[in-house]
Fold:
Amino acid sequence: MSVSFGSQVLPTKIELIRTRRSLQTANRVHKVLDDKREVLLKRLDEMIQQAMVEADITVKRVVDVDIPSLKLTEKDVGMTYGFADSNIAVDRAAREMRKVLPSIFKAAEFENAIFRLAKELERTQRLLNALEYMIIPRYVSSIRYIQQTLEEREREEFVRLKHVKKVLERKEEARA
Structure:
């Protein structure tokens, strides 16, 4: 891109064409990012809804965001402590922990997925804002500046040619 933000652009037809193409590209990127934002919002809503209901989760990749999936493989471990030195409450607590562990894994998975989707959504929104409020308006401004300069040059050239024509007509009248 030859458009340098922060300084004036060269008011040439080539630069006008380049700036128009850059504007078209920026508008297309804006559309893609807007679509991405919509997908992220939808997926975020789905994840939040699933977090409230018991559901089976699989590994997914949503618009370039990796969503990790935690799976617990249940094994019958048995007791990992001395039987003689423990109370029945320890057995009950160990059993309850094994029951709760899958729920903890799912909660961690949901939290991680929601956090990642929200972070990507925030990044996408920043890019959209930059395009919408900074880059695209600068391209539009540059195009307007180049067009006005080219039109002014065209008018100046027209006036100059009229003046040359009058001078030539006077010389021809003086000869005749």
User: Anything to note?
Assistant: The chain has a mean pLDDT of 82. The radius of gyration is 34 Å. The first strand starts at residue 60 and ends at 62.
